[in-house]
Amino acid sequence: MSSLSAKPIGSAMPSGEHLLTEAQAGLWYVQQIDPSNPILNASQYVELAGELDIDLFRRAFAQMVEEADCLSLTFHSGAFGPSQRLDAITRPSLEIVDLRSEADPASAALALMQADTARPVNLGQGPVARFTLFRLSEDRHYWYERIHHLAIDGYGIVLVTNRVGEIYSGLKSGTGRGTPFAPFAQAMDDGAVYLSDDRRRRDAEFWRHELANLPEVVSLAGGRAVSEHSFRRETRFLSKDLFGVLVARAEHAKVTWPDLLTALVASYCRRFASAAEIVAGVPHMGRLGSKAARVPCTLMNVLPVRFENTDHLPLDEAAVIHTKRLMACRRHGRYRSEQLRRDLGLIGGQRRLFGPLINVQPFDMPPKFDGLDVSLHILGAGAVDDITFTFRGDAKTSLMMEVDSNPALYSEEDTKAHSARLIAYLEDALKAERLADVALASPYERQRYLFDANATSHSVEDVTLVELIERTMNTHPNAPAVIFEGQTLTYAELDRRSLALASQLVEKGAGPDRLVAVALPRSLELIVALFAILRSGAAYLPLDVSHPKDRLSRILSSAQPVVILGVENAADLFDYALLPPSRWRSDAQHTEWPVATTDNLAYVIYTSGSTGEPKGVMIEHRAIVNRLVWMRQHYRFGPADRILQKTPATFDVSVWEFFLPALCGATLVVAPPEAHRDPLSIARIIRDENITTLHFVPSMLSAFMAEPSVEGLEVARVFCSGEELTAEQRDRFHRLIKGELHNLYGPTEAAVDVSYWEASASDTSSPLPIGWPVWNTRLYVLDDHLQPLPPGVAGHLYLGGVQLARGYLGRDDLTSDRFLPDPFIEGQRIYKTGDMAKLRADGAVVYLGRSDHQVKIRGLRIELGEIEAAIMTSGLVREAVVIAREDRPGDKRIVAYVVADPSLAIEALRESLSAKLPDYMIPAAFVRLDALPVTSNGKLDRRALPAPVIDISAGRRASSPLEQLLAILFKEILELDGDPTAESDFFSLGGDSLSAVQLCLRIRTETGTDPGLGAIFEHPAICDLAKVLEKAGSDEGLGPIIRLVRGDETLAPVFLIHPAGGIAWGYRHLAQQLGRRPVYGIQSPRLSKEAASPESLASLAASYAELIRQNHTGIYHLAGWSVGGILAQAVAVELQQQGFDVGLVALLDSYPCDCWRAEPEPDETAALRALLAIAGHDPLEHPELITKDAIIAFLKQDGSSLGGLPDAALDGVIRSVLDTNRLVRGHYHKRFDGTLTHFRAALDHKDKNLTPALWAAYCAEVETVDVACLHPQMTSAGAVQTIAPEILSSLTLLEKKGTA
C-alpha cells in the first residue's frame, strides 16, 4: 500500500479555509465528475401526527442549527486543492409551507420534496442544507430535511434529526434540552491527528494483508457501475416473525443480529453473482473511539469486506466466520476506502473496490417528539453505484428493508424481484442448518421456472419409429421418398429394399437392442441401410471411416455390432463381418421376426469422452419418436416438404434429417458426399431441388451466407444447432434469405434437440436464447447443490423428460455420473449437460458456454490438469498446481506453482515438460513455494498464489543509449519489477507476439526507426536488437529471408518456404520445436511493391535456390506448407539440377499443381483471408470476416502479430496470394530424385481426391505422416507436436549418414 498523505488533510490555511477531510475528499471528486448530479443530496422527511407546537419546533430547530455548524459549510476549489469554510450567512433557516388548502396535501408535499432532492446544490454558494415544515392539516405535518453528503453523513443526519426531537421534547416537558453537539472543529482536529498517528499505519497494514489477491469485483447486474442522477427503490417491512427469528438465531450463534443479517445478504449477493467470493461494501460509522462521535459531519466510511463461500458449513459456524471478519474490518475502519482505492490502483475507469452495498442501521429509528406519533421516510441516502440493501430499525419494534438500485443497471422489475427474493431467502436461510440447502430462487420463481415453464406434457402415441415409417410407406407408396444425384426411390421402393435387407440382417443376428454398424457415404444405400436396420428391430450405429482405425476398433469392441454395412474398400478398417451393398438382397425372403418396442434402442452414436475413450449414447424409440412427432406438428411439415440431408450420420442432427420426411410423406433429398462443405453446391441444390427445409451449424451458415448466389434464396425453414447462433447471424440471414430461422439446442444424450427458439426477423434478442423445452421435456438451471436459480443467474443446465438417453453403452459408471434422479419429480431422471445457462425473466433459457475446467489462451484450449499431471510424473516435485493468470488485462498466461527440493533446477523441469507437452502448454513461469497456500478449511487457496517474479538481475547492465532505451521499453511493456540486462531476451521475460507488436510501435515512436517484427523474433535480446537499430532503415520483417531460430551454426539449417500469403512468420511454432537447428524463413519478393511479378513458378524457385545458397553452403533441408510445399519441391529440383545435395524435403499438406489448374482464381478478399490461415485459424470457421478492417481487428483481438501489419504489408500479402495462385496453375512439375516427406492433414479433404500418392510421379519415394488436424491448422502449435519430432527424426538419420 502507498504511504500516508504528505499533506495533513484538514489543516488550516491562511484564508481561514480548511482542506477537506479524507472522508469528504472522495465525495468531492465524485461530485466534480458530474456537478449537475444531485445524487449526493441526502434527504428524508419526518411525519409528525398529533398537535405540533410550531413555535417550540422553531426554537428547537434554531438551537440545533446553532450547534450543528456543518450545516453552514461551503466548498471551494483553490490552489491548495478542494477546501471548505464555515459561513454563517449560509446557515439554513426553517421554511414553513402551508398546504392545507391543497386537494391532496401529502402528495403535494411529496412532489415538492422530490423536486428539491433532484435539484443540484451550489456548493460554493450554499446553503448545503434545506429544512421545510409542511403543514398538511392541524394535526399532521411533514418535516423535510435535505443535506449534501459533503457536509453530513447518514449517522450525522440521525444526530441532527434526533437533536431537534430531544430539544423540542425538553422544551415541552421542561426537563432540559440535553447535551449540545461538539463543534465541527473537533472532528477536523481528530481527523488531522489520525493522519499522523501510528493507528493509521497499523490500519493500512491490516488492509494490505486483508485485500491481498482481491478477487474481481462482481455485481448482480452487467454494465458500467456509474452513479446516475436518481435511483430505483423498493421498500418492504420485515415481519415481526422474521426479525424475531433473526434475533434468536443470532443469539444462538453468539453473534449480533446486524452481523448475521449482513452475512446472509452477502451470501445472497455472492450466489446471485455466481461468484466463489464477493467483496461487499459495508458502511461503518467511523466514530467509535473518536472525539467526533457526536459531531454532525461526514465521517462514515464504506469498508470492502470479503465474504467467501461458507454455504456448506453449519449456519452458526458460518456466521461466526463472517462476524470475526466484520469485527476485524471495523477495528481498522477509519482507514478510508478512498485511500484503499489509491493504494490498490483502483482509481478511474471501471476499477471498483466493492460491488453491492449492505447497510444495516440499527440506530436509524424515528426521532422522539413529546406528544406526537412519529414515522421516518427516507428519500435519498446518497450515491447508488450498483445496488444497496439498507435495513433500518432495531429489530425489536420494526425492521425496514430498502433496495436501492442504479437505474442504468437494474430495471424496476429487477429491483422488485431482488426485494421479494431476498426476503424469501432470509426466511428460508434462518430456518436452514446450512445455506447450501437454501434455494436462491423465491417460492414464486421455483413454481414459475421449475414447473410452469416446464409444463410441456403432451400426449404422444406409444409407437416405435418403425411403425410411423411403415404407415407412411403404406399411405404414400408412389410418393418420392428419397432423391440422390438424379435417382429417386418411391416409398414403395424404399419399403421393398429396406425390408429385404432387414430380413437379411435378422438372419445375421439383428434384433431388439442389438446393434448394426453403418459405414456408408451419403447415398441411396445409406438411407436403405438405416431404414432396414430399424425394421430388423435393431439399432443403428454410424461410423466415420475417416477416423483412425484404432478409434474405430475401440468403438466396435465396445458396441459389438452383429454386422457392419459398408463399402468393399473399407474392409481393411474393420475386423468385423462386412456386408457391402453388392451383397444385399433385393427382396425379403421372410418378414416375421421379433420387432422393437418403444423401450428398445433406435440408434447409438459415439461421442468423445473426457478420458479420450469414446462413449456410446443409447437412444430409445420412445425418445426419438417424441422429438420427431413434436417437430412434425410444431413446424407443420407435410407431403409438400423437401428436406435436405447433408449432416454426417455420426452427428445426431442427421437423425431428424433421415427420418422426419418419412413421418409426413415428404421427400428426402440427399446431398452428394462432397457438397455439405460447399456453399455454392448447397445453394444450387436448394434451387434445383426446391428444398424447403435444411439445417446448418451456425459457423457453416455464415459461410453459406457469404456465398453471393445465396442472396434471394427462398426456403420454408432453416434450423440451426450445434453451436451458438448469434444475433448478427440471425439478422444477416433475414437480409439475404426469405424463410424462417429456428435455433435448436440439445446434446446427443437427449435425442437430438430439447429446446427451440424462433429467430424471426422481428426478434431482437441478444444473445439469442436456446428457448423453450419441447414436448414432454424439462430444462432446469440449477446451482452446484441442485437448487433452482432465478432469472439472470448462471448455473448448470440439466435436462429431464422422455427424450433422455438410456445411458452410455457399457459404461454404467459414466451413466450414473451424468444421469441423476430428478430432485423435483419423484421417479424421474435428469441429465447434467456440462453446459452453463441462465434463465430470462420470460422463462427462455440462454446458453452461456461450457462448465469444464479448460482455459483458452491465444485461441488454444488447454486442460490445466494435463499440465499438472505432466509436472507430477516428472518426479522432480512434491506438489504442483497450474493456473491461468491475467496479471495484465488481456494477457493470460499459464503459471505453474511447485513445491520441491531447493536443488530443483527449473530448467530441468521445463525440459521434462517439453518432452511431454506441446509448447503452447509449457507454463510461461514457474514459481517455487515452500508449501501450497490453503484456506481456513484446508482447501487450496488459489487467490493466495503469488504473481510470478522473473529474475532478470544476472548479466551486464544496458550501456549504450539504444540498449538503455530498449531496457526501459522491455520493463514498461512487460511490467517487469527490475531492470533487464543487456542480454535479456524479450520472449524469455514473458513477451509474446502481441507484446512484440507493442514493442515495435514504441521503438518506432521513440526512435523513428521501425525494426520490424521479424527483427524482434530474430534478435530478441536487448544487445542484439540494439545493433539492428543502429543500422538505418527497416524491412518491417518482410525481407526475402528472415531468421526464425539462430540455433547451432554447426548444423545445417532448415529453410521454411512461405505459403500463399508470402509471409514465413507463421512457422514460428515449428521453428521453435526444431531443437538446436538454425531455421530460416523464405518470404515472397511480392511483399515489396517494387518487386516485379515472377514469370513462372520455376523462375521463382530458381531465385529462392540462389537466395538459400547465399545463406548456407552444404546440404539443403527444405519444408513448406500448402503452396510452400509446392515451392519446396521445385526448389529441391532446382538445387539438384545445379549439382547440390538436398536432404529433407517436407511438404505440409501440399498437393501437386495438377490438382489446382481448374480451380477458380482467388479475388482480393480471398487473398486477404489467407492471413487467417497464416495465423493458424481455419478461414471456413470465420466466414463473416470479409473486409480488411474486420480481419485485422480479429487478428488483433486474437493476439496475432499479423494484426499489427502495416497497410503496405497487407497489400504485399494480397499480391503474393494472387501471384502464387496464378503461378501454381501454370506450373508443371519436374521429377525430384529423392524422398518427399508428406505430412497429411488427416481430418481434412474427406470429399476430395487429395492424397500424398499424387506426388509419386514427381519424386523417387513418398513418405507419409498423418497429422490429426485440418489443413489450416498445419502450422498450429498442436499440429507441430506431431510434425517437429518427425522432421528431427529424419534429420537425425541424415546426420548418421553424414549428410546433415
Automatic annotation (TrEMBL):
Entry's EC annotation: 2.7.7.-
GO cellular component terms given for this protein: cytoplasm
Organism this protein belongs to: Rhizobium rhizoryzae
Domain of life, source organism: Bacteria
Assigned keywords, A-Z: Metal-binding, Nucleotidyltransferase, Phosphopantetheine, Phosphoprotein, Transferase
Sequence ranges assigned to domain Carrier in this UniProt record: 957-1033
An MF annotation (GO) of this entry: nucleotidyltransferase activity
Cofactor(s), names only, from the UniProt record: pantetheine 4'-phosphate
Signal peptide, first to last residue: none
Official protein name in the record: Enterobactin synthetase component F
Record's keyword annotation contains Transferase: yes
Keyword Magnesium found: no
SUPFAM superfamilies: Acetyl-CoA synthetase-like, ACP-like, alpha/beta-Hydrolases, CoA-dependent acyltransferases
GO BP: any one term: amino acid activation for nonribosomal peptide biosynthetic process
